[in-house]
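#help-structures

NK: newbie question. if I give both the sequence and a SMILES, will the prediction place the ligand too? trying with coenzyme A
OV: yes, paste both and it writes out the complex. here, I ran yours:
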Amino acid sequence: MRIEKVTSNKKQFLDLLLMADEQEEMIDKYLPDGDLFALYDDDLKSVCVVVPVNSETCELKNIATYQQYQGKGYGKALIQFISNYYKNDFKTMVVGTGDIPSILSFYENCGFENSHRVKNFFTDNYDHLMFEDGIQLVDMVYLKKTM
Ligand SMILES: CC(C)(COP(=O)(O)OP(=O)(O)OC[C@H]1O[C@@H](n2cnc3c(N)ncnc32)[C@H](O)[C@@H]1OP(=O)(O)O)[C@@H](O)C(=O)NCCC(=O)NCCS
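OV: that's the protein plus ligand as structure tokens.
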């Protein structure tokens, strides 16, 4: 397994990025300035994008593993890698997600704990209703992890 920081042609990973964030114009807001990491195990399995928030905090904006490779530890390996990568630069990593039990379980399993919630984030910022696991995305739930 190897993880690379990708600095050019980040849009080549759009198919994976759209799995975690289904509106391309939202991805375009953070991808140009975000750090993109790609995990390969023979071929590409997962990607994630991290942006700085302030001098103490960075944010995981996107993480996705191809469906057929989910549940094999690739997502967790990426989070462990980026936590280590940024440990001297930031104190805390935050991530925002929908109020979806399976995704919250994934992040908790990767060391995140509940932080706060932004009411109506998805209904206010996306141009269509969105559902995950049959649950409508309404509020953004933030989780945090000490590096
Ligand atoms: C969320 C996602 C990135 C997880 O990646 P992954 O490579 O499947 O995750 P891992 O295999 O590393 O899982 C790590 C741990 O979380 C747990 N986990 C993963 N998906 C889970 C789920 N749906 N429900 C409960 N637990 C889950 C795993 O059991 C594993 O636990 P373990 O370490 O005890 O075995 C992947 O499911 C995905 O790409 N989903 C679609 C895109 C998405 O929703 N991204 C998040 C947007 S906020």
